[in-house]
Design goal:
about 290 residues, alpha/beta, Rossmann fold, Conserved Hypothetical Protein Ylqf, Chain: A, domain 2, six-stranded mixed beta sheet, GTP binding, GTP-bd_ribosome_bgen, GTPase activity, nucleotide-binding
Length: about 290
């Protein structure tokens, strides 16, 4: 199967509302933290968010580093740094790299804070917004930053009554935003990678096609890891379909009469990839 045949578009109405809300609130923000999925750093870049952020100081954080190929993560960090934006890798669940991210945010805000000091403004908090596609880990990061207290700052002018600033560190306040995708994926591979990592609801694309394309990528990039995890032997002539059969047999995915249950294989493999039970993999190449 060719990835060009995998077409997916998903832009629910609530995302249109979220986009409009973000456009209105970005003027209140000093720094934007762009959260990317370390498994798909290129595919999880939202061009619409970058356009909305304009010239705001920005920090890029590759989340889920514990689920991604560490060698490729380092290569992606180098590539993204070439764009002139501070970048780091983090793991929201353990907190690894989060302190570095906060330091980068404060450094990015330095020109702004120095300008305030020159004007005699002291003790004004730096306000930031964390943006990213759905399921990239925003909520987990925000909860970790806010800590147990989750102190809510007073409302700021221009902020709706439903939105409040969260104190996340001394001198830093955060405004939460929903995960937002963009109306059209120009590259079908982008849509595939977003689907495989959970940014897109799995009931709006063909899961069998997604699995076939995933296994095709795994056979090219990580054949040894695939074979070891499922305890199967791969041959040069193997295709995604024959690998599915081998996995089904190895895992005992059998229906009555000894027929392989391919639906069970499909559900199992996609889940084990998405949750990193299969191992640490990066689909996007840092080229």
């Amino acid at each position: 199967m060719d990835v060009k045949d995998f077409k997916i578009q998903w832009f629910p109405g609530h995302m249109t509302k979220a986009r409009r809300m973000m456009e209105g609130q970005l003027r209140l923000v000093d720094v934007v933290v762009e959260l990317l999925d370390a498994r798909i750093p290129g595919s999880s870049i939202n061009p619409m968010l970058r356009q909305m952020a304009g010239n705001k100081p920005r920090v890029i954080a590759l989340n889920k580093m514990d689920m991604a190929d560490p060698v490729k993560t380092e290569a992606w960090l180098l590539k993204l740094k070439q764009g002139g934006v501070p970048v780091c890798s983090i793991d929201c669940h353990t907190g690894k790299g989060v302190k570095q991210m906060i330091s980068l945010v404060k450094e990015a805000a330095r020109p702004i804070t120095e300008k305030w000091l020159k004007k005699g403004v002291k003790n004004r908090d730096v306000r930031l917004m964390i943006v990213g596609v759905p399921n990239v880990g925003k909520s987990t990061l925000i909860n970790r930053l806010a800590g147990q207290v989750k102190a809510i700052a007073s409302d700021r002018p221009g902020v709706t009554k439903q939105k409040q600033w969260v104190n996340i560190a001394r001198g830093l306040q955060l405004l939460d935003t929903p995960g937002v995708l963009w109306p059209k994926f120009e590259d079908p591979e982008t849509g595939l990678h977003l689907a495989l990592t959970g940014a897109v609801k799995d009931d709006i694309y063909d899961r069998r096609d997604a699995l076939v394309l995933l296994l095709q990528e795994m056979l090219k990039k990580y054949p040894q890891q695939l074979a070891m995890f499922y305890h199967i032997t791969l041959e040069p002539e193997d295709t995604a379909e024959t690998v599915m059969e081998k996995i089904g047999a190895a895992r005992g995915c059998v229906k009555a009469g000894g027929v392989l249950d391919m639906n069970k294989v499909e559900q199992m493999v996609l889940y084990e990839f998405k949750t990193a039970k299969m191992g640490r993999f990066t689909l996007d190449e840092p080229i």
